[in-house]
């Protein structure tokens, strides 16, 4: 089926086969009608003109092919007014439609109207037509031919509009796909930053503590091992998203779901194991906010604790507070360590920017800044969705 669709999508191949399938019976009928209607050499001229028109019809989307067909029919009109009864005449409106649909010139419709007038005039003045007592009335014939030309032109314009619209949709789909790809890449970059930065911050803090307190080496190594295993599990999940051959029931299907608010105690335990004194309090009645929002808030807390481990200095403590207010969920992470100072010539990190992007994606806001001379506070606010209040 796909091979057939690809063949149909190839214009030249399709036109050539269509010209053969349609043209052979029409040409044979035209030969019979020409031999019976016009004797001698004139029949041979009609047959040659028909053959030329059918060959040109294989290139029907080309304006030059249309003019070849028009010239072939004009030669037939010079030979006899009876040319109009030849089946080959059908090629003219088909070629007019094709040139209008796939080109931008108005010459075909002009030539078509002029040809309609020529055909009607030749039909009215040819003695062989009068001797055969053929109808219809020349004026009626002119009206019929003009109607055929206008109909072919109108259908061609309609098809051209369709093609333009389809191309526009394809372009928009391409732009949307590119934007979706960029958004997904940014999301994965944020996930990788959060996972790797937190794990490395814990490992560095543990390594520093193990160097200062050698007797805790076993405990420190156990924490480093657990942190590394957790980071590898989450990284496996991110890499699984990128794999195109992942199927239902495969190894990726056994990965744990993305963390949410329920996993915050486990996150705080890892921070405590890294040497950070951290507490968590909750106020208000919890409401469902959706897995995407929970993941965003989890990453905000994770990044804030990671920054505390990296920048607050030894002996710093931190607190996490979840306040379920009547209008929104407010998550505050505060520490009492030294505020991070920007280093000259160093670009700002991606942590705060990533947190803001996460909250913005789920409809929330983020504020962060120093709390006086010591300490740093990160506050995330997420309005409830309708029906969750």
UniProtKB/TrEMBL annotation:
Q: Locate the Histidine kinase/HSP90-like ATPase domain: which residues?
A: 292-386
Domain of life of the native organism: Bacteria
Q: Which residues cross the membrane?
A: 16-36, 43-59, 65-94, 139-158
Report the GO terms under cellular component. membrane
EC number, as in UniProt: 2.7.13.3
| Keyword Transmembrane applies | yes
Which EC class is this protein assigned? transferase
Catalytic function, reaction form: ATP + protein L-histidine = ADP + protein N-phospho-L-histidine
Note whether RNA-binding occurs among the keywords.
no
Give the Gene Ontology MF terms in alphabetical order. ATP binding; phosphorelay sensor kinase activity; protein dimerization activity
Record keywords: ATP-binding, Kinase, Membrane, Nucleotide-binding, Phosphoprotein, Transferase, Transmembrane, Transmembrane helix, Two-component regulatory system
Q: What is this protein called?
A: histidine kinase
The major lineage groups are: Bacteria, Bacillati, Actinomycetota, Actinomycetes, Streptosporangiales
